[in-house]
Give the backbone structure.
Amino acid sequence: MDAINPNVELTEQDRIDRLRLIRSDNVGPRTFRSLVDHFGTARAALERLPDLARRGGAARSGRICSVDEAKAELAASRQFGMAWLAPGENGYPARLATLDDAPPLLAVRGDNATLMRPIIAIVGSRNASGAGLKFAGLLARELGEAGFIVISGLARGVDQAAHRASVETGTIAVLAGGHDCIYPPEHGDLLAAILDHQGAAISEMPLGHEPRARDFPRRNRLISGAALGVVVVEAAHRSGSLITARMAAEQGREVFAVPGSPLDPRAAGTNDLIKQGATLVTEASDIINAVQPIMERPLVHPISEPDGEPFESDPQSHDRDQITDLLGPAPISIDDLVRMSGASPAIVRTVLLELELAGKLERHGGGLVSLI
């Protein structure tokens, strides 16, 4: 079955350092990985944050999470039954760990073994039809009986139907907020049932974090990233489920779609996915047959694979100005910046990192960046 042997176990100090770095201003998962790849450890990266932000044009460096703050968060998490796990540790989903924007620490509650088994995502409309809810439940139940874990976002509609149908065989709820901020609130009983039956819940957010609109796409990348493939049961145009499907495709995951009536707007998104090449699904075996060959391929773990591109210790001011002038509010690829500026990839990467830590740069999917 699809598995990766965990070979990482952080010390308590490593966990504190990693939590401090990811909780510091302007440090997201991609930046975290770049910093640790370059400086070797989270602690070394923390020491360099003020200088890098200053070089990026920040009037003053952003807030750096203190040791006491990190220790307090870890203590509160343990009291709540959560463990903060790093990629490669037992309980961190193996496929999620391969993403370049994988959470450097993932808050986990529940059965770690469930998180290490082969996973299929089922997502869809919050206001799904009765037929859609019934079919989502049928798929989830049959996938569970075939040995798969179902992952979804604990939302109303299709997510809820998929979770409830796979409680007995194992399901994973991905939260947009902290573990104590369940959304929607009425699904607290569903989450309790999931955890009582060897299921699990994961989040990258701290306790007390109420989910906001922008947190749901972040959550969606975890749903698709942890899975072999994503099944969309019903989705209108511009729905969150289509965002999950797009992320799945960008992550190299299989995308499946359940066809629906062309007269039902809730099927418009799924029918479009099929036109675009998604695998049509009418029964669970369509999914199982498609992912079986993928499960036989070995996973490459990123822990031993830094991205390989070096940074420049201190770019020249003319290089920095040239790269900054090429940036604007419209996203541009890093490869284009290298080509247009004539600077080395190392210099471009360093300038982008400085701008990001100064709070001036936004990273998008597919290697795109823009000025904030």
Q: What stands out?
A: Residues 130-145 form the longest helix (16 residues). The two ends are 43 Å apart (CA to CA).
